[in-house]
């Protein structure tokens, strides 16, 4: 997700310092935008130099999970000491848990900076099109200030969900819909196929009914072709998110039965192939629907 997002910033004339663990992945950006794109190497010194740069006002992270953010950003800030984020806004865009978001807010404050949680709805394809929905959790004043900088708008539309923690809670609620719809669709199709019913007729009936949702035709071809290679989002990613969703449900006294069952299905999908290790599209949950 980070790559197309950085590209939108560059297209719109922002100067961008890009960090990626595998720095070669950022090289095409440097070739395309040689004067405004700077790649940060994986050395701690290089990361610290950029984090401490007073001319940089906004730091955006789009790493896989909370631990990556701590390792890449906060361990390096720690080594700098003092208030290296003074005058800066740290915008965290990954899907993480409510507690993890609160912890990053606290760490940001300790380094003298302001924190915004800004998880997104939309796949990599949506990120390439610049049409993500960016959900913001922060004070109205900070939202208006960041909105006026015209940075996050490069990724898509902005929605101020409310104060801190509201945006990540909204994102996790939405992701439960994503995970469960995909699981339910996979389960329903396996019933059709295992009972010698015509899957095309099934699809036509759904399309002509009130049951139809746009997502149905996005996921159906993947399932019918058993094609999980061109990844929208990984099985490991959806398991990570379901962990956060389960915890949020427990804390807000919401029934966790369905959440735990769906998480268990994706865990099974992640364990189904020792070679792939959950690094395939999460639609592969379809593969574990049929009992041996
Ligand atoms: N993909 C989606 O459809 C989607 C939609 C909405 C939200 N999200 C959320 O957005 C975030 C990023 O998703 P993504 O799909 O871009 O994930 P991804 O393809 O797995 O990329 C994650 C990034 O994290 C880096 N990373 C992973 N482990 C690391 C480590 N130990 N140390 C340093 N860097 C590490 C990766 O570096 P390398 O390139 O070196 O591996 C990569 O830059 C996740 O929190 C995800 O839940 C994803």
UniProtKB/TrEMBL annotation:
Residues 1-157 form the 6-phosphogluconate dehydrogenase NADP-binding domain. Gene3D superfamilies: N-(1-d-carboxylethyl)-l-norvaline Dehydrogenase, domain 2 (1.10.1040.10), NAD(P)-binding Rossmann-like Domain (3.40.50.720). It comes from the Eukaryota. It comes from Naegleria gruberi (Amoeba). GO terms for molecular function: NAD binding; NADP binding; oxidoreductase activity. Keywords: NAD, Oxidoreductase. The keyword NAD applies. PANTHER family: CYTOKINE-LIKE NUCLEAR FACTOR N-PAC, OXIDOREDUCTASE GLYR1-RELATED. The lineage of its organism: Eukaryota, Discoba, Heterolobosea, Tetramitia, Eutetramitia. Residues 169-285 form the 3-hydroxyisobutyrate dehydrogenase-like NAD-binding domain. The active site is at residue 171. InterPro entries: 6-PGluconate_DH-like_C_sf (IPR008927), 6PGD_dom2 (IPR013328), 6PGDH_NADP-bd (IPR006115), HIBADH-like_NADP-bd (IPR029154), HIBADH-related (IPR015815), HIBADH-related_NP60_sf (IPR051265), NAD(P)-bd_dom_sf (IPR036291). Belongs to the HIBADH-related family. NP60 subfamily. Coiled coil: none annotated. This is Predicted protein. It holds the Pfam family NAD_binding_2.
